[in-house]
Amino acid sequence: MTERNPEQVTVTDKRRIDPETGEVRHAPPSEPGGAAGGAEPAAAPEGAAAGDKVAELTADLQRVQADFANYRKRALRDQQAAADRAKAAVVSQLLGVLDDLDRARKHGDLESGPLKSVADKLDGALSGLGLTAFGAEGEDFDPVLHEAVQHEGDGGEGSRPVIGTVMRHGYKLGDNVLRHALVGVVDTVDTVGEVVEQAEQSDTADNDDTTAE
What we know:
- The protein contains 5 helices and 6 strands, in the order ααααββββββα.
- By secondary structure, the chain is α+β, with helices and mostly antiparallel strands.
- Among the domains are: 44-88; 132-213, Nucleotide Exchange Factor Grpe, Chain A, domain 2 (Roll), CATH 2.30.22.
- A 3-stranded antiparallel beta sheet has the order 1-4-5. Strands 2-6-3 form a 3-stranded mixed beta sheet, with no helix packed on it.
- A hairpin with a 2-residue loop joins strand 4 and strand 5.
- The radius of gyration is 47 Å and the shape is elongated.
């Protein structure tokens, strides 16, 4: 009777750690571990796409924040401009009252009494709002601030127009001109320039005399 050879049995050690060396075994590509290891590089494109999406959303957020900041600045600027226009409109209505007080002051009616107290309080309140008067005799004429209704002199070379008389003061609210000053202009000669020129001529003559000696 013939004996059959037993089938050869193959045992595969699937332990990831070698019991003899204690080192981690590297799974071949055909094993599940190897398949998982081979799938890891595929995650790189997904990570790059996620990073691009984050960068895009961050840029959108920064753009929205910048737009909101610009809108807020513009809104505050428009609000301030509207407030300035309203304040200028109210103050402009009181300029006639200030003219009457100026005339009363010139006649000595504001030296004492209740009217002086009212005038002082009104001047203080308007000054607190930023109202300032301009236009005084002897100041240089400035067409941006002054309106000339009289002009004396020929305006020749070396002359300088100055304010001779003030018919009505001008007023500014902050940097804005509410009303120009009505003035009479007089052409004057720049005496300071003449004195300097005469001194220079005198020095030149002295130097010439010294050289001649």
